[in-house]
Amino acid sequence: AARLEASAWDGAWYRRAWFDDGTPLGSRDSVECSIDSIAQSWSVLSGVASPERGQQAMDSLAARLVRPDAKLVQLLDPPFDRKGPDPGYIAGYLPGVRENGGQYTHAAVWAAMAFAARGDGARAWELMDLVNPLNHGRTPQEVAVYQVEPYVVSADVYSMPPHTGRGGWSWYTGSAGWMYRLVIESLLGLRLRIDDHGAWLGVTPCLPRHWTHYAVDYRFRATTYRIAIAVGDEGTCATIELDGRAQAGTEVPLADDGAAHTVRVRAPRP
Question: For 26-80, what is the HEC assignment?
Answer without folding.
Answer: CCCCCCCCCEEHHHHHHHHHCCCCCHHHHHHHHHHHHHHHEECCCCEECCEECCC
